[in-house]
């Protein structure tokens, strides 16, 4: 039995879709905070169990009988370590034979502030004595392609990443990697640094948007405080504006770059090219 936490999230749903290609639905459990949002998964034959990272009692029930567990990191930035601790403790009680955790690319050396909670979670996993595999995920294409409509509207793509190269990949690529690891044997103790095959600067991303859309888009590099203020003015919550501007600044220091191609090696195919991701975003409007 493989249990996937956060299964109704964007990544979780894709992981389940990948696993269903090679596993019977009866072997999968979707552990979700709101079961009513997982009716489509239940219709596929996947067992749905209620699991709230903040309520340990639900986790014991959710992990009952689990052989493997994918702990998708909480999106509750600032409160994630305690939530992850609850899942790890429940996994220990359930005697899980493999726990896979979605961490951050090069978490142990990353300049991104996001790395702190991931590193703390990795330390908890190390102390737990559980068999663990780390999926250190890089950036999603979608983190940038979601902003294409605004870039086209303003003829500008703003950021504070400077000339930092970003080796992003699609959520589907990362989901395929998680499914591959959960399907393989002898994964305990491994650390995968996962990133896209190609890297680009935000200047190059703006040029690609321009090429495909026919609308001139220029990259505007700001200071981190300027970019944070811009995000806040755009209506983002303060914590998100801080996180995104910090991550962009980290990218300028190489924090989102990796050229080892472990992701494509793991999934057995090239990662989605940036140009393809831009085309899909433009088509979706």
- Ranges where pLDDT stays below 50 over 5 or more residues in a row are none
Q: State Rg.
A: 19 Å
CATH architectural label of the domain at 2-138 and 171-194: 3-Layer(aba) Sandwich
Compressed to H and E, one letter per element, the order equals EHEHEHEHEHEHHEHEHEHHHH
Q: In order across it, which strands form the biggest sheet?
A: 3-2-1-4-5-6-8
Cα distance, first to last residue?
A: 39 Å
Shape: globular
Briefly, what CATH class of the domain at 2-138 and 171-194? Answer: Alpha Beta
Instruction: Give the strand content.
Output: 5-15%
Helix share bin: 40-55%
Architecture blueprint of SSEs:
Elements: E1 2-5, H1 10-19, E2 28-32, H2 39-43, E3 47-50, H3 56-62, E4 68-71, H4 80-93, E5 98-104, H5 115-128, E6 132-137, H6 142-145, H7 148-154, E7 156-159, H8 171-183, E8 191-194, H9 202-213, E9 218-221, H10 224-233, H11 238-252, H12 262-267, H13 274-284
Can you offer a commentary on this structure?
It is globular and about 55 Å long. The model has no long low-confidence stretch (mean pLDDT 96). Strand 2, helix 2 and strand 3 form a beta-alpha-beta unit. It is of the alpha/beta class and 285 residues long. 45% of the residues lie in helices and 15% in strands. It has 13 helices and nine strands. The N and C termini lie far apart (39 Å). It has a domain of 161 residues: NAD(P)-binding Rossmann-like Domain (Rossmann fold, 3-Layer(aba) Sandwich), CATH 3.40.50. Helix 10 packs antiparallel against helix 11. The strands form two sheets. A seven-stranded parallel sheet has the order 3-2-1-4-5-6-8, sandwiched between helices. It has a two-stranded parallel ribbon with strand order 7-9.
